[in-house]
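Form 12-C: Joint structure prediction
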Amino acid sequence: MKDKRCEPVRRELEELTLNGEFSATTVEHLRGCGECRQFQRQQTRLRQIVGSLGTVSAPADFDFRLRARLAADSQRSGFRSFAVKGLATAAVVVVFGVGVAVIWQRNAQQGPVAEAPPIQQSKPHEEKVITPPAPEVTPTVAVNHEPKRKIERPFVAKPKRTLTALDFSSERANVIGNTRTALNNEAVFPIDASLQSLKVSLDDGRGNARTISFPTVSFGSQRVLTTANQFAPKGVW
Amino acid sequence: MNTLTTIDELAFAPGLQEEALEDTTSDHALLEATRSGDQDAFAELVSRYRNQITSYIYRMTNDYDGAVDLAQETFVRVYRARDRYQRSYAFSTYIYRIATNLAISELRKRKRRKLVSLTGFFQPTDGGEAKELNPPDGRPLQDSELVDAERRNAVQRAIGTLPEKYRAPLILRDVDGRSYDEIAAILETSEGTVKSRISRARGFLREKMRAYL
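Section 2 - Result
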């Protein structure tokens, strides 16, 4: 039966090298403990068998295959670094191109382009324009969708802008049917108007015209619904 | 020049210490030369360690062709990382650490693929104890060499059934004869853990190899 003195002895038997010498305490214990003697025999035998496994040799073409592998690896890493550099260069070119395109587009939008006929002044029915809080229109409220510029300008009293559209949302809108002619020959927007966004042109009195684009407002028109769902039967909600 | 076969010779053979140090230093020198572009220096390193590394990985994985492949991968990684190598520990520790990690990765891959070895022990699906496919022959011994070969095969198969964390320290200690502190450095663990795992591994093997002990 194993007792407490067996534990340090077995630990020493485990940790000692095969040809190592036992301590006097261990020798004394082994004389009197049959289990530890058996343990020591089995342990020694096992370690001898495991130790006899020896070293397995690498094959004769090991060096040759390793050189080929290193050569292939260096080619791959060279291609990889070339690919990385190429991708990085391409990314820089793309970012630069996008930046140039954005700047060009912004500059183009500031030009006096009116893509839609300007709305006639001082007439009701146009409810798409933001109401200016005071009679004088300030550019930042109505048209400032572009990023702020850093250009320094001397303070000049700004002339009044010429409005091309007003908001009459508090007034009741006249209902205009498809068969009725427009009242007072005013411009109307038929219910099946184009889905393109509405563009309003403003003249600030200094010869600069700015165009405001408004998204399409749906009145639940059949055309809008039909266009949105191309698979729906025509003429049916 | 005497070639060291075990680290224990460093401690018990003082006469060889200087030679051992020179040998260790030359491993570093060879790697430094490799860093500078000397291919022959790297070839010398390979010739020093290819058998040891191949053998070690073979003992770990029980697959010779796979072991050769992983041994080559070990050297490829040493070559790739030559600029990052630090001299704070021995080159043998460094290369064995790479080899150990590759062998353990391979064992884990196999476990996931649930490969079954047809020439050794296998794990039954009912979760019972591993059975030996080739039980020891009870007939009278005819040829001691054949007996020894059979015993070695049996112990190799038995090592192959050990959990991977017990396999590496046992092989490094009982097959390669490395010291506990070197094994601890290779496995990046403490000496106490190394001793404990070796003790457990031997306990497993004693059970499996009872017929041969």
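Section 3 - Comments
The first helix of chain A runs from residue 6 to 15. The beta strands of chain A are 198-203, 209-214.
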